[in-house]
Amino acid sequence: MRAVFLSFLLCCCATAFASPTDKELAAQPRWQALLHINPGATLRDRQRSYVDDEQFFLSEQGKDDALEELTASREALVAPGAEARCRFPARYRFLSEQLGWQDAAPFSHCAEYQEWRQAVTAKRAVLVFPAAYLNSPSSMFGHTLLRLDQGDDSAVWLSWAVNFGAVAMADDNSFFYIYRGLAGGYPGRFALVPYVQKIQEYSHMENRDMWEYTLDLDQQEMDWLIDHLWELKDINFDYYFFDENCSFRLLELMEVARPGSHLLDELRFAEVPVNTVRALDEGGFISERHYRPSKAVELDNLRSQLSGRQQTLARRLANDPALLDSEEFLASSEQDQALMVTVAYRFLRLKYRKEDRTDKVAADSFALLSAINRMPPVTVPETRDAQPPEGGHGTQMLAASGGQRDGNLDFGELSYRLTYHDLLDNPYGFLRGAQIEGIDLTLRSTESGDPKLEELGVVSIRSMAPRNRFIKPLSWYVEGGLERAWAERRRLVRYVQGGAGASWHWGNWQPYVLSSFRLENNSAFDRFVTAGAGLDAGMLYRRGDWQWQLGSVGHYFTNDVYRHTSTFAVQWAMTRQHGLRASVEREGWRGDGENEFKLQWRWYYD
Amino acid sequence: MKKTLIAAAMLGASTSAMAVAPGGPGCGWGNMLFEGQSGMPMHLLATIVNGTSGNATFGMTTGTNGCDTSGALSYSGSSLLGMTGVMEEVAQDMATGEGEALTALSVSMGIEASDRAHFNAVMHENFAAIFPHQDVTADEVMASITDVMKKDDSLSKYLA
Lengths: 606, 160
Known about the structure:
By secondary structure, chain A is α+β, with helices and mostly antiparallel strands. Chain A has helices at 2-14, 22-27, 29-34, 66-77, 83-87, 89-99, 111-119, 174-183, 195-205, 219-231, 246-257, 273-282, 295-303, 308-319, 327-330, 334-351, 359-374, and strands at 124-130, 145-149, 160-168, 187-194, 210-215, 237-238, 286-292, 396-405, 409-421, 434-446, 452-463, 475-487, 489-503, 509-521, 530-543, 546-557, 562-573, 578-589, 592-605.
């Protein structure tokens, strides 16, 4: 295919004076990219344009027919002073280059476009990956956007952010909003906003680390991209959470900048943002990587330089800047004093970042900031061992296991997980203490019978954010699906369960305690749905490539049934894509229980 | 002069010297981002679908969050400026003498790379004059920055 394309290109050069036919032009990768034609990346709209907006097409058949659209575009764009030139500068550029149109100032009549184009320039393009944010369904897997730097200096606060997302209006209520956002009820659009807004949003408000990847685009490629962006102003795409999302659309932009990059050739069912980073990395697009820690991480790095007593003092200082004159404070070295004030100030700003301004907080902040100004400079220590997300394990998983259950009952299992990560998987590159699983299927086969469904997890999300002197986040979890549980005998039950609580870090140890509520449907209980409440508690431990967990979860149901499961598990991350997990589990119920041992090999891919 | 206007806008200051209520009530130092939204915060709304809140922006809108950003803004356009959090970050960077917000400020004022370290140092030294109290407005901050620069031999040329 590539050879054919190459000879096609050579052909074009050899016959430079004979214009290519419309058919040849319409088949060119750049024209296909400019129209956002699906090369087979998703099942929806194959060989048709992804754009879902009449405004984008000059021909009525434009969405389905690249050739028709090309003919219509040629007619609309050829005349000097044509109105369509102001709407489609990239298309004009493509056709004028290919057909040898000569016009020294083709856009001189396009005041609005020229004004915009003057403001939106780029010397450097950067792919930005804000890390996962569990408190929002669409950000659990991270996000990607593009940054356009106007200079090659460090003034990124003056850069533009190109973001693709659903366009949402505030008048919908939140449930509707989430549903429609995920199910494709909102149109997706590109937006161009100052990058500083994105820093504020991610790094300041949501405490998300950001990874910034400088793209190896030359000036010409960036100009193609920006010209085409203008063509996408106020243009609606479909927005689908799983595949046609922020990341997918950025790959389309890359195809406009550098046609024939083959970023969209493979069929995919989901575009996970981290795979976009990988695709661009493998395609040779990424030249440099930069880590931007969130405000919370910076605070953590600063406070870890202080002793426990000094941290406590810094925490008090935030509430009472008068302590700046106390003997206790002045007893520390000048450098430590500066560190304490910096920690106190940053803590105060972080803590109240989402609240209305109050006189007390503003006055205290100002007093601390003025003190910082008078003290020796403090630099924020770099995050040790910051792990880039693209270095993490693959997003899908297959596993094979063997084990034994009470009564010498041997079994073998096959598991598949569509996505993404649990607390014992290799943590490299993932948000610590975060678990997101979607579609987790396990089939179990025993000597005595046919393979049976052991478990079908639909969704499982767990956020174990550790608390410390300064920040006190809530830990929570929610999960649901089908699993085997004891109800007179071991049977398949349907359930949803969730809870909230707290978690802490003590070195490599991470204990957690959460309340737990469960709704269950099974064929043994009298009621259709039975509710239960209980506790989910345990301890995580990590050391090198080893992850350990000792945990217990128990529920007492409204029909007087009591049930609990305790697990001790360890996983060894052999390589990035392979892990070995051993677990011992005890399932108990009123008066009895069963034990199970299991050894599992886990293979991550994609 | 144009550059100064842009910098003023970046701080959320009104660009008209005769403006009655400089900056507007939402522009004092130390305010929080996205304040004053009722119901489900727009911030949260936008996050849920990774989108933009309210009307889609395309680098052409001006003015958010109660700050007056009227006037032609052509550098990094528009709402950078209406953003209340920016002044706080500038203050923080001036107190310590460096940072991305301060760099952005100096670049937007047209200060050459060779003078930026000096600019940072001068701003650091004059922090107390530029930010005399927590209720200072963006206009007052911008006026003080201009005053300080006027008195400095190598920075005064950028005000011309």
